[in-house]
Design goal:
It contains 2 helices and 9 strands. It is α+β, with helices and mostly antiparallel strands. The chain folds into 2 domains: 5-86, ATP Synthase, domain 1; 91-140.
Length: 141
């Protein structure tokens, strides 16, 4: 039997995932990180992207996070994010519209959105679209 680690992913609204996993990968600011049981302690900010969880038995689950913080302990990983959504629940049309709006705001610097806010929204929309595309590729296999 493989060693496991407990994973909790919590958004501002609700707990998205709580369970046992063999491993997970997350989009840390410093780059993609892989976490396995007995990983050294770590606290790192996350950028918008996909958290991939390999559950006990090898089943995978993908969750989009809008950024946040990941705390790693030897037997527990906790991810706190303003927004966390299961990849299967992402709305591609809404993500495409958010991307278009953010790109417009970046072009029109006199728009209502501040530059940093527009860049943040663009990064989140692109990360959602990448998560949707990764889920589609996995389903095609």
């Amino acid at each position: 039997m493989a060693m496991t680690i407990h994973v909790d992913i919590v958004s501002a609204e609700t707990e998205i995932f709580s369970g046992v996993a063999e491993s997970l990968s997350a989009p840390a600011i410093m780059g993609e990180v892989g976490i396995y049981p007995r990983h050294t302690q770590m606290l790192t900010p996350l950028k918008p992207g996909e958290v991939r969880i390999v559950k006990q038995g090898g089943e995978e689950e993908a969750i989009y996070v809008s950024g946040g913080v990941m705390e790693v302990q030897p037997h527990v990983v906790t991810i706190l994010s303003d927004t966390a959504v299961r990849a299967s629940d992402l709305d591609e049309a809404a993500a495409l519209e958010a991307k278009r709006e953010a790109e417009e705001a970046l072009k029109d610097r006199e728009g209502e959105m501040e530059l940093a806010e527009a860049q943040s929204q663009l990064a989140q929309a692109v990360a959602q679209l990448r998560t949707i595309e990764a889920m589609r590729k996995k389903l095609r296999r």
